[in-house]
Amino acid sequence: MSRLHVDWTACAGRGLCHELLPEVLGSDPWGYPVPRDGSREPEVPEGLRQHANTAVALCPRLAIRLIS
Amino acid sequence: MAVNEALWYLGRGTGLMALLLLSVATALGIATSTGRVLPGLPRFAVTALHRNAGLTAVVFVIVHIGTLLLDPEAQLRLVDVIVPFVGDYRPFWLGLGTLAFDLLLAVMITSLLRQRIGWKVWRIVHWAAYALWPAGLLHAIGTGTDATQVWYWIAAALSVITVGAAFLWRLVPTGGGRA
Amino acid sequence: MKTLVARVLTAPRAEVPWQGGPGRLIALAQEAGLTGRGGAGFPAWRKLTEVATAHRPVVVANAAEGEPASSKDAELLARNPHLVLDGLQLAAEAVGAAKCHLYASRISAGHARHALDQRKDRWPVTIVEAPDLFVAGEESAVLSAVDGKRALPRDKPKLPVHQGFLVQNVETLAHLALIARHGPSWFRREGTRDEPGTFLATLSGAVANPGVHEAPFGIPLNELLQPAEPIQAVLVGGYHGRWVPWTSEPVSRPGAGVFVALAESVCGLDFSAQVLTYLAGQSARQCGPCLNGLPRIATLLTAVARRRATAGTVTDLNTLAGFVIGRGACRHPDGSARFLHSTLTTFDHEIAAHLRGTCRSRR
Q: Predicted ipTM?
């Protein structure tokens, strides 16, 4: 099981991540990601690993990463 | 049709395709840099389009250069591919193409290695895109033997309109806070 | 129980009680039950243990004290810098440090420099000046400044303690030095079993005894603070703390020992709105949720304080608070949300009055 770590100082609310991983991330009124499970580093189920990798690669600010 | 002629047509054709694709990539890059949404298109799709247009453009540029290297009439030497402004045929306009290619390589390599070099370094090199597109455009106009043909000018105009429209869209002010 | 005691503020200068090797002090700290005095109250021995496992540990004495209502660290460095510096040396010995720093605002740094000139320490201490900002004392901001960069909180994929950085409040180090000098049993003679020892308290607001005092844990609130006029509530722990009603109950979890007494004649919502406006202005502006959420919260609470709000405003406040928690590089938004929550709970009757257009305190 891996977790998503958000570098909040880099995140600019571009919103690609919650488009690509809607099951794990919602969005606040300003476009910043909100972990749906309420934790600081939400879990990413194995089935969504691929989408999470895409989100990590496409984030314009390189603000998220997957950690195990 | 002789092989040489085929190479010549292929060389020019791929060059023009590369210019159009680079214009699309540049326009999309300008549009996404605002952080604003293009109506109707999810953000990740726009980003993916931008990347793919860019990568496809690189492929076309490589074929463009490759065919011209093979074509004896083009008089393109290997050194002209990397070092700008030392060519025999229209050195200035050719050199702009070389310059564009060098910058394109830098942009592509840093983008592929983005996660390893970090955002700040990547971003500085990526700004070279603002030099690379005009250089490519001027190279096409200056060295293109078809520069007198109407369809050539149409293609060049489309390129300018695409990027210009994105630039204007970016300048239109909008509300919202960003970190 | 004695009321106010004298330990870290007045302990006389003495030789550094070297322990003779790394690690020994950690056992003493554990026995004594020393917890951090920077606000978090984390057991000191656990931080020391973790940092001691690193290859080249770095110890930073933190005197940044960005909290406006706190002046205990400044007072400690002015009155007893040598005790703090002793503690810093002992902590360095305990973890086998490679480097030592002291991070303080200009005036405190001056006191420390003056004291350092009178010493010949085993570990040379570099003084790093801290900007006068609320978040300057945050752990990653401290380390950033020590590294020569701006004192801003950084992203922390791994906590600093796990990377060999010990950032310890100067008061904690002072207590550590006294534990090394007199032993854990002596330390436990004051305070309670669960919260042993003494702490420095900064008192302000409607009190007749403002300023810095040293007190044992477990002291009743109405013995620590002497009211200058009737008090309705006390803000404990600073601007990221919580409201406590005026009581004779013992003080518990005072955080960084900040106590602001709110007179009955002052509107709690007015005061809180000003605090939140300040907190919003002190955002490092690096993280979207904090940068966008805190000013919005401040605006809404100000509307409530000025009797220009509706019940919907209060709902919005709660929603916003939920949005800023846990979504930032540091805990500035979390602490601010905690203060907001405490305000909304403690002053619920006042809020009801304001929504009706009146105010319960005499303005």
A: 0.93
